[in-house]
Design a protein that fits this description.
The protein has 628 residues and is of the alpha/beta class. The chain is 62% helix and 10% strand.
Length: 628
Amino acid sequence: MRSRASAADSSLPLPTAAAAAAGASPRTPAPERSDWTTLKRLFPYLWDYKWRVMAALAFMVGAKLANVGVPLLLKNLVDTMNIKPGDAQAMLVVPAALLLAYGLLRLSTTLFTELRELVFAKATEGAARRISLEVFRHLHALSLRFHLERQTGGMTRDIERGTRGVHSLISYSLYSIVPTLIEVTLVLTLLAIKFDVWFAGITGIALVFYIFFTVKVTEWRTQYRKTMNELDSSAHSRAVDSLLNYETVKYFNNEEFEALRYDEGLVRYRQAAIKSQNTLSLLNTGQQVIIAIALVTMLWRATQGVVDGRMTLGDLVMVNAFMIQLYIPLGFLGVIYREIKQSLTDLEKMFTLMEREREIADEPGAQPIRIEGSPALRFENVSFAYEAARPILHNVSFEIPPGKTVAVVGSSGAGKSTLARLLFRFYDVSNPQEGGRITIAGQDIKQVTQSSVRQAIGIVPQDTVLFNDTVEYNIAYGQPGASHAEVEEAARAAHIHNFIAATPLGYQTMVGERGLKLSGGEKQRVAIARTLLKNPPVVIFDEATSALDSANERAIQAELRTTAQNKTTLVIAHRLSTVVDAHEILVMDAGRIIERGNHAALLAANGRYAEMWAMQQQSQQFEDEIGV
């Protein structure tokens, strides 16, 4: 006969226009910002490794100087090959030396390139690590409202792409774009000096056309890439959501329905991917046309120069080698530019997530809460609404004296669990200007750090969610670093040790995704053990035994009463039999306290509490009669 909290009591705010305007929804479109803004946001992470950046740039310049030197040596080698037959000494000295130098330059190009990547790898990985860690920490700092409204699959996909974007952006810009620009500058300078300005002019004009065409077409293609990413995130979100709710899918025999929903996303993704591939083919074809025209024009002019005696055969070979060296990396310019733009887009999404303001933040200069022994806990004139049009609490005031237990009972949707969320500062009270506040040991929890408040409170929630790890890990989560003996002691106190010991792997048993390998009662006892191990001065039991059978419930209730001794305890309950020993019982209805007193006084008042007690006694008697 246990009931579950309704939407109002389970703190599930619905998105509204007001919430969207306040930026509450994680799906609110972020304002567009320029690529330069994103690059400037990334720069400080790389500048922490400024000496490595400078060394990498030096090696990059060295690699390009060596690369440009290769065609020059090749020209000299060809020109020296007009050796007369029998001139063995010249054959041994001149071409051999040039061949050796040619090989050294080739080796130097590879050596400098590898040194650049070796030196800069730490900077790239360090920047990616710092950004990922900051995003992770910031997500944990965001409000419960954000996490209730987010789509886990899509968000994790954005973070994954953003982290990968750091690597791609650095790789393509530092390893492709910048080296190519350096090489283009060197080649154009050499062509203009050694021959005439038309060689540099033809190359420059071709490059301008090539880059203009590539940028314009890639910009046009970006819409398809963005659509692909959005559809990819959407399909991934559906897949993750479906797999997380595996049991529900099975209960309702909806595997095929889920597959069709997932396939719907895949079909739309496929259509966008085909468009993207078609436009890529157009881009590649146009690039090759421009390259072919430029090469033919350059070689025609060089051939004319050889025929006229203005150029040597080596000059022709050198021009051809320069063009090949230039246009091979330029052939990937469309891909590189697209990937850079995509990396910037992915980084922008991640930076936007990092810059999302915290709805609940510590006030400037906030200090840790000071608690000695068992503190008093007070709700003073507290009102709260997830949305302005849907108030949950109305001027709620009560006090839990140090070391005492106060229970809150009432129908589902009365606002009981909201009290716990406000106490943990997942949300702030809605009426601070009217004196609404919550204090622990006389200190307004809004004036102290959130971390210290949460460290002082332990909770056994109604719906226990566990990490996909071992039983020991989940119990020890209440006090990271606890010894195995301490974990086992907490498990014994929660009456789950015997169950754990009976499993083949004992405390190393994996509990599965969200603890799905355990029953509801087993998960709840793990949660109880976790809180017992934390041993905080303030304890909240939110329907702490709702998933247990009667025998285990009675045994654990006795243990919880022992645990609650000398602790300030808030009990949120539906079963009144679990709160009869409370110092004070508050009866809530529609967000207001309508009755208060101890068990005997409330029964004597013959009000709402007495009515609920009579109904539950009849229900319990019926269950006993049928053997439930």
